[in-house]
Amino acid sequence: MFDKLKSLDDLFQEQLKDLYSAETQLTKALPDMAKEARDPRLQQAFDTHLKETKNQLARLEQIGRGLNLELDGHTCKAMQGLVAEGKETIAEDATDEVKDAALIAAAQRVEHYEIAGYGTAAHYAERLGHSQAAELLRQTLQEEQATDTLLNNLAKSSINAKAM
Q1: Which residues of 109-130 are buried (b: 16+ CB within 10 A; e: fewer)?
Q2: What are the tens digits of pLDDT across the range 87-122?
Q3: Residue 53 falls within a domain, yes or no?
Q4: Angle CA(125)–CA(12)–CA(71) in degrees, nearest 5?
Q5: Is residue 3 included in any domain, yes or no?
Q6: Pfam families, alphabetically (predicted)?
Q7: Residue 56 lies in a domain
Q8: How many CB atoms lie within 10 A of CB 35?
Q9: Per the domain annotation, does 1 fall within a domain?
Q10: pLDDT of residue 3
Q11: What's the structural domain count of the chain?
């Protein structure tokens, strides 16, 4: 964390560190969510998103190298809280169908947080003239939006009905 954010560039760098921490934490949480999911399509969605998340971390590392910015050393407290809530969901005594619905709800909270973060960071990158970083951040933003849509469709098409 910076002692003081003095410019949009300082804020952009702080946002990148926050996203890096968030994605790092998520790579540790997604395998547990996939293991706990009972619907095979939900398991596949979590497994697929884990692979995407690893690629997203690589993109952030590429941005960090391009800006000569070390991304380690920051902890995203928001993701800590979201991951903790996900662990609580996993620990709940619930039917398989209700657990799957709860896992989707927890995962969508994570996706919405990431969508907000990547959208903001992409805007900052563009504003600051970091066009390559902006493009990489927008690519990740599109993946996060697609994952959210997939989870929403799974919930609406079958999982929530089964949980009733």
Answers
A1: ebbebbbebbebbbbbbeebeb
A2: 998 898 999 999 999 999 999 999 999 999 999 999
A3: yes
A4: 110
A5: no
A6: DUF892
A7: yes
A8: 11
A9: no
A10: 63
A11: 1
Place of tokens 């989870």: 151
- What pLDDT, on a 0 to 100 scale, did the predictor assign at position 145? 98
SS3 content of the chain, % helix, strand, coil (to 5): 85, 0, 15
Amino acid at 16: L
Is residue 14 within 8 Å of residue 121, measured between CB atoms? no
DSSP per position, 11-52:
HHHHHHHHHHHHHHHHHHHHHHHHHH--SHHHHHHHHHHHHH
Which parts of the chain have pLDDT scores under 70? 1-3
Q: How buried is residue 47: exposed, middle or buried, by Cβ count under 10 Å (0-12/13-18/19+)?
A: middle
Residue for token pair 């399509």? 41
What lies within 8 Å, CB to CB, of 30 at 6+ separation is 46, 47, 49, 50, 53
Can you give the residue range of the structural domain that contains 59? 8-163
